[in-house]
Amino acid sequence: MNYEQTKELLKRNGQEQLLRFWDELDETGKEKLLRNIERLDFAVLENLKHPQNLSGEGSRLSPVKGLSVAEIEANEQRFKTIGNEALKSGKIAGLLLAGGQGTRLGTEGPKGAFNMGVTRELSIFACQMNNILNDLRESGARPLLLVMTSEKNNEETQEFWKENGYFGYDAEKVRFFVQDAAPCTDMNGKILPEEKDTPATSPNGNGGWFSSLKKSGLYEELKNGGAEWLNVYAVDNVLQRPFDPVFIGATLESGKACGAKCVRKNSPQEKVGVLCEKDGKAAVIEYYELTEETANARAADGSLEYSYGVILNYLFSLERLEETERETIPVHIVKKKIPYVNERGEKCEPQRENGLKFETLAVDLISFMGSVLPCEVRREKEFAPVKNATGADSVETARALLELNGVTL
Ligand code: UTP
Known about the structure:
Elements: H1 3-12, H2 27-38, H3 46-49, E1 61-62, H4 69-74, H5 76-88, E2 92-97, H6 124-135, E3 145-149, H7 154-163, E4 174-178, E5 181-183, E6 185-186, E7 193-195, E8 198-199, E9 201-203, H8 209-216, H9 218-224, E10 229-234, H10 245-254, E11 258-264, E12 274-278, E13 281-285, H11 292-296, E14 308-317, H12 318-323, E15 332-336, E16 340-341, E17 347-348, E18 355-359, H13 362-369, E19 373-376, H14 379-382, H15 395-404
Parallel strand pairs: 2-3, 2-10, 3-4, 11-19
Antiparallel strand pairs: 1-12, 5-9, 6-18, 7-8, 10-14, 11-14, 12-13, 15-18, 16-17
Helix pairs in contact: 5-10
The structure holds uridine 5'-triphosphate.
Uridine 5'-triphosphate binds at residues 97-104, 111, 148, 179, 203-206, 234-236, 387.
């Protein structure tokens, strides 16, 4: 697009401010700005004009039946055999969500490169890959592993994997793709300039993985390779166990379109999203959307009715995912601190939320799947989130859990 066409496009979208510094840019800067504007997804801003009702208010919730640890252990060998067969046959592939910015952790660089070690280098990526190699020992399988990065961390992530010899995995089985970005605006919906030649953008949330995967062209490769199920997992749990044959076997045997690893909520107030049914369809409800009464509801045996907390480790049927493509994933508008260049051309690092980001959430995909099987895992063995630098769900708590599981730090 040339200057005139870009100006026209911005006018139609009420975003002419992005050309404010045009006259100050050299030829390279001008070209860069035009290219950057062309890539912007303006459609996402429509959500400001027509906000969707995402609160779940007025919906009918009911508990969903899952598999408890005891039930899984009682059938472990059978599930494992089914899972290992599926792994060996190439039906299973993995997708690591590593496009987040990890702002709460507050470190530079990809979150997965964060060093959990104390006396040695042990990145989050390495912790997870060690678990994977362990789980694949019996089957000897090497499923295709896709790593979703963002424009902000793609190069560094790829470099880190290369430097670390793909953490003992087969390099040719690892593929990277970049998730889409969405523009960031001020509180009035005007896109902020991050630099004079660069509009502010941010990764469009962890729910955008399926559309980004399709755009990347890797989906074709996945299907041609015979994959039927995708194990999608988050980077920020150092005890994460994707490619767990028992979980895979349990999900496949259930006939459901999706399996979800879950921990039992340790109290009605625990801040995790819970799996349930919303108007008869599988859904994840965030803790702040549960009423006091629902959060405290108990079954006949005294256990919490809404007790399956999700840990972002899902097995999705690709066939079902394809059917959901017609559905539009909701866009959440989140207030965040967004660095920007002010009208005088000065760079500003806001101390408080100054703008809006547009994000899709992986949990919203669950409601498209129709049916889901919650599989309970032991919290102390599989759930050590690294969200914050200190306090709850932090590097300290995750290190303690790694040690508890026999990992040398
Ligand atoms: P979080 O929701 O914890 O976000 O991500 P985050 O960006 O890592 O951390 P904060 O909120 O800035 O502190 C949960 C998982 O989803 C991935 C993350 O990499 C993590 O594995 N994610 C998140 C993406 O892949 N893309 C995104 O746009 C956001």
